Amino acid sequence: MDAFTFDCQRARESLPEFIEVYRRRPILDNAGGMGLNHSFATWFILRQMQPRLVVESGVWRGHSTWLIEQAAPGAEIVAIDPRPERRIYSSPRVRYTTDDFTRIDWSGSDVAQAVLFFDDHQNAYSRLKDMAWLGFRHAIFEDNYPCGEGDFYSLRHLQAGCGHPHLQMTSAYAWQPRQAAKRLVLEPLLRWCGAGQHLLVPPNTSDRANLAKHLQTYLEFPAVALAPGNNWGGPWTGSFEPIPPLFTAVDPAIAGLEQEFESLDLSYGYLAYVALRA
Predict the structure, then answer these.
(1) Which CATH class name applies to 8-165+201-276?
(2) So what's the pLDDT on residue 194?
(3) Which terminus of the chain has fewer CB atoms gathered within 10 Å of its CB, N or C?
């Protein structure tokens, strides 16, 4: 299966078709999950690639599972989540499991024709290494935190060399009693464990250099449109700088969506597509 290639004009022209799909979504309130921007990106990538297998790691309420079905109707879908009781949407054509994708026997699957969809808040660099070991080449990383934010080591952290030195980088968590207690106990222990652990990563450039040896494509998919401020309440500047969106908020293509959808979620977390070399 060829790597995904981004065509801006094709993406812009595909938005009306996607909106028709989005209108039929079974979960209207997907708080904690994907909004419009990441839903469109996921749908567009999978619709173009048409993989034979999609492995979804992180189901939440099931919106992304439904979206995968719409984008790649011929694909086998394996949906993984350790807490299935949170799921609202379920499909009879999806194989559900609580096992991590590294604990599944893929020997009978055509993993070269598969796409992994990660929304599981695990170390992204470790996920890529696991992919390579198991023979997968293509992945979508739904959360891709910028430096100084997030609860796991993201591809943006890796590319910038800033590491992930705390369990939760977002400053709002630092002063919560439970988070502070967790840091006080766990972080010194994790640092003592050394390189064998994956929750804390010191600033470095070696991860980026080593990934480059195996990386064919790294692509951050643009937002359909950006909210006035970033996901953490600040401006889209510095480490929060995104690539230009497909549309502006006043573009006729999306200007009416605020009225159509009671809550138009334009959150954007730099969703990324990655292809490893064969």
Answers:
(1) alpha beta
(2) 60
(3) C
- Chain segment 29-87, per-residue pLDDT in tens: 888 899 999 999 999 999 999 999 999 999 999 999 999 999 999 999 999 999 999 99
- 230 pLDDT more than 70: yes
pLDDT-above-70 percentage for the chain? 96
Predicted local distance difference test score (pLDDT) of residue 81 = 96
Task: Map out the domains of the chain as residue ranges.
Answer: 8-165+201-276, 171-199
Q: What is the pLDDT of residue 256?
A: 73
Write the DSSP assignment of the chain as a string of letters: -PPP---HHHHHHHHHHHHHHHHT-S-S--TTS--HHHHHHHHHHHHHH--SEEEEE--TTSHHHHHHHHH-TTSEEEEE-S-GGG-----TTEEEE-S-GGGS--TTS-GGGEEEEE-S---HHHHHHHHHHHT--EEEES--PPTT--SS--HHHHHHT--B-SS--SGGGTTSHHHHHHHHHHHHHHHHHGGG-SS-B-S-SHHHHHHHTTEEEEEEPPPSS--SS-TTSS-S-GGGPPPPPSS-TT-HHHHTHHHHSSS--------EEEEE--
> How far is residue 135 from each of residues 95, 128, 131, measured CA to CA in Å?
20, 10, 6
For 173-194, the DSSP string reads: GTTSHHHHHHHHHHHHHHHHHG
pTM of the model: 0.91
CA 59-132-33 angle, 5° bins? 20
